[in-house]
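hi support,

uploading two proteins for the ticket. first:
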Amino acid sequence: MEVKIGVQFAPRELVVDSAQTPAEVEQLVADALASKSQVLTLVDEKGRRVVVPADKIAYVEIAEASTRSVGFTAR
């Protein structure tokens, strides 16, 4: 699953490919924004952690990972 995080004052968004479910990610974001924790921590598919200060989160987009077509294909 792909998670895009917009961070205030950052020119690019963070993109994390996570093995967590959309419900788990949504709960982590809600907890971080409700000040239960001061940071949002996500783990990507390779086990790396991404930590974002909760007060700097502009938006979070949760989407299924899309596969890109290669070559010339008819749609």
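and the second one:
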Amino acid sequence: MRLVLGALGRVLILLLLFAPPALAQAMPGDADKQAIVGTIRKQLDAFQGDRAAEAFGYASTNIQHMFGTADNFLGMVRTGYPAVYRPRSVDFRELVTTGGRIVQKVLFVGPDGVPVIAEYFMERQPDGSWRIDGCRLDRSGDTSA
């Protein structure tokens, strides 16, 4: 018996086979949302105190391998992410999925007074905790995120 699929049927099969994980991944519940915000807050607090090892501990294994040492990591944040390193204000926005990844949006006002939106890519650990697997800043000044 031969199955004949129309164009729509073929598209649906392709979507199911190659769909990004976001289509199958449920948004985290309230407890996970609180844990994600807590992880980011703890890292920000560690930056404020220049506690490199503590801040580095909230980074994913991939990020840790990329920078090698806590001091390298803190140096990168200090020079490349001044709004994150020494924010004037921090406002947590929505939690979304982007490309199959959980992303926490945060509005920072940097030391220069310029607002930026940060997208924190979060990674669930085998023990259920969350680590930060990257942060991208949108320097457009758009505060509507």
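thanks. also noticed: The domain at 26-138 is CATH 3.10.450.50 (Nuclear Transport Factor 2; Chain: A,).
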